[in-house]
């Protein structure tokens, strides 16, 4: 039950239903999710370990804060690590790896990015998006690179809601960016693949940095 609650709260943070800094009152949340307080507390403790939630001894839980400084740091670090993982994966990738990235991209390309009148980030798309990027680096041969990449990707998810839920300007071809990345990877063009990946993440970061909630926090 705690794992299910963790996933539900995490998704509500990503989609912006639970805004950064919001106080998380256990009884209210338990009623909303139809769950017990004990498994909910465990779920929030897990989310606190990843930065989605902050915890204070006397103040309880609240949604983790976001900042421009942290976003820049996460993005720069992610680019260094994930480009390294992508380079190694392309070099080592075999036919099975090619099959994985083609299949992952096919699913991603068939899904809508946002859903509903509020244009919330679609959970199925988010899962497929993570699966595609995970498949791209899956042949890097380094469990530590994979672990670090997963951690940084998880942190980036806390900011993605600003792009998909709040940002008014959506004049970018995200599916096209993913197709270009797939083509470069299959062509074994490491420089081109890393260039596309970097631009993909930088564009997202620059879009997020325009949001007023980050401008007000430096």
From TrEMBL:
Keywords: DNA-binding, Transcription, Transcription regulation. Residues 1-66 form the HTH gntR-type domain. It comes from the Bacteria. InterPro entries: GntR_C, TF_FadR/GntR_C, Tscrpt_reg_HTH_GntR, WH-like_DNA-bd_sf, WH_DNA-bd_sf. GO terms for molecular function: DNA binding; DNA-binding transcription factor activity. This is DNA-binding transcriptional regulator, GntR family.
